[in-house]
Specification:
Layout (H helix, E strand, L loop, with lengths): L2 H30 L11 H7 L9 H21 L4 H22 L4 H10 L2 H12 L3
Helix pairs in contact: 1-3, 1-4, 3-4, 3-6, 4-6
Length: 137
């Protein structure tokens, strides 16, 4: 198989595993930091209705989920690709960033969180995952 096709496949593997990490953290998050009473975090409507009750601590789990999902996906892509490891790790980060932008547009959250999440959770974590993935064992 051609090296570019392999790299694209490894980026897809990174995206899938990174998304699984993200969703796992999002799923268990409410048991770690419970949402305010009567706020339904399982639906966009529930979030919209209760967002005003949320404090900064409630945004920690989503940020960690986005950052770690991106980091793990980029790390996997960088570890598996033969060449241009950082490039493919950053592609994973960019694709996660597109997902983050989509979430900002569809899920209500404060502006400070949107900016923090979009600026710090995606490209910087992909870069870090790529750099660590490049290092030899």
């Amino acid at each position: 198989m051609n090296e570019t096709l392999k790299s694209i496949f490894f980026v897809l593997i990174g995206l899938i595993i990174g998304a699984l990490v993200n969703m796992t953290i999002i799923t268990i998050g409410p048991s770690i930091i419970p949402p305010p009473t009567d706020v339904d975090v399982t639906t966009v409507e529930g979030l919209a209705a209760g967002i005003h009750l949320m404090e900064p601590i409630h945004f920690l789990i989503p940020f960690i989920a986005h950052a770690l999902g991106t980091f793990v996906g980029a790390l996997i892509a960088a570890r598996m690709c033969k060449r241009n490891k950082l490039k493919y790790a950053l592609i994973v980060g960019f694709l996660f960033l597109l997902g983050g932008i989509s979430m900002v547009m569809s899920v209500p959250s404060p502006l400070w969180f949107n900016i923090t999440d979009l600026v710090l959770a995606y490209i910087p974590m992909a870069w870090l995952g790529g750099k660590i993935g490049i290092q030899k064992n």
